[in-house]
Design brief:
Number of strands: 3
Structural class: alpha+beta
Order of helices and strands: HEHEE
Length: 151
Amino acid sequence: MAQYSVVRAILVLALAWLGAASASAQVLPDGPILAAADLRQSQSLDGPWSWSIDPYRDGLAGFHGDPAGRGHARWDDIDVEQARAADPLALFEYDMDTAPVSELPASWLTHAPQMRHYQGLVWYQRRFDSAPQPGMRYFIRFGAANYTAQA
């Protein structure tokens, strides 16, 4: 029994020595070291967001599957009032600058009473300032998009 304990102790010491030797021989990568998103320096986008429902999904594609036309693509950063002044016949399905505003994060069920049973596409927009630095990479992280999201 004592012989078994000695062999076991030697085996444990040998494994510990091999583990320490291999750990000290590791070289850190030149690339970025991954860290949890919550631990990184960040800018919160919580707060007021403009929103617009799109029950027919016009903002994704036109009637025959073509790209969304002018006046339908809600992601376009366009001044609708100025565009209408330049072309009085232009049709805009939306104006994100005058769209309803809700505080996010929140479920769209809380945006308005008529949204309680809505199931479909909703567009959100928020303007924010950032100061990008050369040589840095930046990421946008959405913490609770339901099912799918396109950004």
